[in-house]
Amino acid sequence: MVKRLDLKLLFFCVILFCSSTYYLFYTSYSLQYYLLLPFVAWIIIQLIEPKEFLHEVKLTKLGRTGLKIWGKIIGLAITMNVINYTILWSFTSANLNVSLLTVQSVTLSFFELLLVGVVFLFTSIIWQEIVWRGWIYERLRGKSFVLAVISSSFGQTIFLAPFIYFTYELQHYGNVFILYVLFILFQVLLNIYLITLREESQSIWPSSIFQAIYYISWDIGSDFTIDANVSSEYVGGLYGITGILCLGFYIVLSSTIQKVIINKQQNASI
Prior knowledge:
The chain is built from ten helices and no strands. It has helices at about 5-20, 35-50, 50-55, 65-95, 110-140, 145-165, 170, 175-200, 205-225, 230-270.
């Protein structure tokens, strides 16, 4: 029988593969949405074992308390957005003398972009794990697991929506509204995956590492694709290699963290 951790690593490989091949078909806009398929398949597998996945699934009215929580979600998302944009703008303007609105249209070198990803994305993702899938999820989980997932996805969407808007892709597509609907759907599916990963590991690190790797490789691929002089095949190959290297890093680091957590739990029980 396949272990659940093996399934997670398998789907991680599938997601990275879909992400890399997306840039091979960059001119076929409709193909980009097949990135949703791995997450849909993952949810189907989780639903086979409902006791492990659906914890206290019930919809309840939260009233005034719920409004306060949603208000904090929006406030935290906007605050984090401002902080992260300031960090990204400071880094790029100091080196390339560009404005905030043109940050995503400037082709950075591979190592510069990787540095931005490590500093900007990984730090913000740790915050997201504490806020979206930490405080919010734990506050709402006892009342409604579904509402907890939707709320964390909502906060994540607000946080990433402006960043996505300033990228090359959304500015050059026709129906932005449909793209945002699909983007929100993608965030909901991604949050469900990350929540299951976090629950089974009992740590923020595996899901943080996964999300950091995913968005770092996404930024590398999208930024190189902007350069018209770089072929999509080269971008796809570069993206795929980056994904494989990141996958190896993820497996080693997450396995190490899992062992440390297990050892601490065993020592505490003695």
